[in-house]
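Reviewer 2 asked us to include a model.

Predict the structure of this chain.
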Amino acid sequence: MQNKLRRILQKQDGIAILLVLCLGALFVALAAALGYAASVLTANANSQLREQQAYQLAVSFSDVLEKELKDETSEFAKFINDTYMNSVAYGTNIYTQESGKTVIKSREKENDEAGADKLTLTLQRRPGTEADDLTADIPIHYSDAENLAETLSEMGSSTHTVKDLELDITVQAEKDGVSYAYTVNYVRSAHYDVYYTLNNNGATHYKWDPNERKFYVDGDKDKGVKVTDTNKPAVTLHYDTNGTPTSLTYTRGVRSQKGAT
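Predicted model (C-alpha cells):
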C-alpha cells in the first residue's frame, strides 16, 4: 500500500514540474509578444508622427500659396495670371484641353529642423465649366430694342464673369523619408470684354450702347446700327478672348485631394 501511495505522489510531482515548465514557457512567449507589439506600436507611432509632420507642412505651404494667389500684386499671382493660365507653352488650347502636370518648384532641405526635407509644387490647368461659352458664337434672341437692352445689360456689364478655367495646385512635402501630397482645386472667374456681329457678318465688330440702343463700331460711334421696331438685325455675341481678362477671382472647387505618397 505504501509503495502504491509513493508512486502516486511521484507521478503528481512530475505533473507539477511539467505544469511549471509550461507556464514558464507561456510567460516567456507572452513577454516576447508584448515586446514585439510594443515595438510595432512605437514604429507605427513614429511613422504616423512623420506623416503628420509632412501633412502639416504640405497644408501650411498650400495655405500660403492660396493667399498669394488671391493677392494680384504677389509674384506668384502674377506668374499664374500673366503666364501660366494663358500660355500655350503649358498646354494647347486653354479653353478646350486639360494641360499636363507642370512641376515648377522643388527645393532640398535647408538648415531648418522644423521645415520639410523637400517641397515640390505641381500645377495643372483645365477648362472651366463655362469655358465653352468663350469659344461659342452665341445668338441673342429679342423682340424689340427694349428687350434687347435688357438681355445685353447683364452679359455686357463690367461685373459679368465667366468660370473660364480651373487650377490644381499640389504641394508635396517630404519629411524624414515620408511624403505627403495635398492638392487644392481652384475655380477661376474672369471678366471678358464682349463684342457683337450683326446679320452673320463677322467682318465688323460692334459694341452696344444701351442708352442709344445702338450697335456702334468701337472708336466711331457715328458708324453704327440702331435697333428699332422695324430694324431688328440678327445679333451674335462673342467674348474677346484675345484681350486680357480682368476681375480675376479664385474659389475652392470640389476636386481637392490629399494623401501620403
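The longest strand covers residues 162-175. The first helix runs from residue 2 to 69. We have added this to the supplementary material.
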